[in-house]
Write the structure tokens for this entry.
Amino acid sequence: MHDSRLVELLKTLSPTEQKELGRWLRSPFANQREEVTRLFDLLADRLGTAREGSLKKETVFKKLFPSEAFDEKRMAYAMSRLNLAAQSWLVFAEQQSGGEAAYRLQLAKALRKRGLEQQSERELRLAEAALLAQPHRNVDFHQLSHQLHLERYESSASRQRTAARSFQEWSDEETIVFAAKKLSQACTALVHKAVSEADLRIDLLEELLAFVEQRQLVAVPAVGIYYLGYKAMTEGDSRQWFGRLREAMRAYSGQFPKAEMRDVTMLAVNCCIRQINTRREVGEQAFWLGQVFEIYKEGLDNQVFIENGILSRFTYKNIANAGLGLKAFDWVEAFLTQYKDALEPRHREGAYLFNLASLYFRKPDYDRALELLTRAEFDDVLHNLDARRMLLRIYFDRGEVAALDSLLDSFAIFLRRRKDVGYLRQNYLNLIRFTKKLLQTPASERAAREKLRSDINDCKALAEREWLLGKV
């Protein structure tokens, strides 16, 4: 039973959701078969406990039908019916998650269709009041506002009252929804392009950017936050646009739900990472590293990075790296320990060991770093890249030329085979190329060394630039 769709679904439910599903199954509207309810109670009682291992079809069937011989088909029917009932509850729960405004809007529509116009009008007013009373002003707010104005238009058009005003409000809200969603897509496309070199097309983007500026829609939180994020990642004067994005984030922090505020925070982080990986001017990397570190610390304080009690291992690594870049070693060590238990259990130990290795590498304590790197499992391409980068520097600094030569060759093969490293591929290939040149250029050949220094400075995409220059 463990690999069944039913068990897979039930294991995602929180204790509160399990109780709600149990009540749903006991309603004659949702379920009229006693064995379905009993099967759910039996599974809910065992999933996530030491008794989960006893969930075999024969064992469960005997508890459901103690006086009957095992019947594979009947067991399958019971599981299928419970799965369908659970899926129906998921749809119902999703419909109820829209809040009071969405509920009253649906009720107003139903009443209008039955000719109960006064009752429909009352529910529509209550829906509008409920929408304005809630604190969020994200795209979901404007989506529901658009639906309310559409309903208002259809209601008033049938009676020829205030139809033009309702039409304009309906149209304006639809424009805001379109702009917010399209700009959010554009920001997401930039991130995907950077990571995987995906060729993603966003139609009407240039026209939309001009329209947002013309209509001053930057002042609308749902539009402005993504407009500023896109500009910060694409315009040459990135500091100015990033500053405006950060101001907007602080001003609008209460106007986005926590999940979307996490997305906005990661948008700002990606702006910084993009600059860290591409800017070469003096002081630029330090500035952007300081910015991303502050964003991460604010996000931790506001708990925007914790989702269902879990901190992503990738965010865990990025936060640690930001602190290490600023040599905040004590802070990073405390952070790694404090948030270790918030990592997903199956990745917890590997992520902790990898990031602890990074900490000792930066101190530097190469013996401890090597010990930890050999214990960590790299189940992510970025972890793999970072581990190879650390090993490259350790072998070079220790003068272990044979180990370094082998690593450089295997590293290059790895980069050329992987299609999911994006712009980082060229950064690391250039690191490999210049490391080999450095090994082949004796320190006594001053002219050749100066040429190498110049080439490193002129290279646009290069990991570990400062380290290479220091070695030259």
User: Anything to note?
Assistant: The two ends are 62 Å apart (CA to CA). The longest helix spans residues 163-196. The mean pLDDT is 90.
